[in-house]
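Pilot study result, target chain (226 residues):
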Amino acid sequence: MKILYLETSSKNCSVAISDDEKLLCLCEEVSENYKQSESLHTYVEWALEGAGLSMKDIEAVSLGKGPGSYTGLRIGASSAKGFCYGLKIPLTAVNSLESMIEPFLGKNYDYIVPLIDARRMEVYTAVYDGKTGKELSPTEAKILDETSFDEFKDKKVIFVGDGAKKAKDILNLPDAEFRDDIYPSAQYLIKRTLEKIENKEFEDIAYFEPFYLKDFHGVKKKKSED
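Predicted structure:
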């Protein structure tokens, strides 16, 4: 089954294509300026070309549904819905935090904790078992302080994501590992997507909304003085 994967919840605009579990092509770039609006469809074209496929060969779309950037999630969801409507194919959606833990599973960590940077000292986070990847605490918006995650003081834990940088500065966990260069990536949506397809866990394309976790707070532009 040829599947298109879109992950636009972070600074990493990421597109992948697989044939069942085999990754055929990955196109992604981390940008401080969130380039999803200008890059996503170009990356889809490049991924199709790299996989030797055309859009009509795609049989399902999988989306990293968030949490993360409100604008990035809107762009990803709109594109995923458009592809599914146009091709009459199903949509699956995977928690973006799950794609961040995949490279660290089975590496002798007791816990893997993704941290997506939100405003100020806030992060989007969940806790996963380091061996099985099972979610141990649900996704939440969490304000960090020096007592956060104290329960892991004697455990082997790794914090991953762009929120790990500020976590390292404030958490009282000297033995923990921190990787702030990890972003959600489309290539790590494959395993969970195939599970969802096998279980027929498809989204209702008409009513699907990304996992924003919090309401959007926009910034009003100042009126020009002329």
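One observation from the pilot: Residues 111 and 157 are 5 Å apart (CA to CA). A full batch analysis is planned for the follow-on phase.
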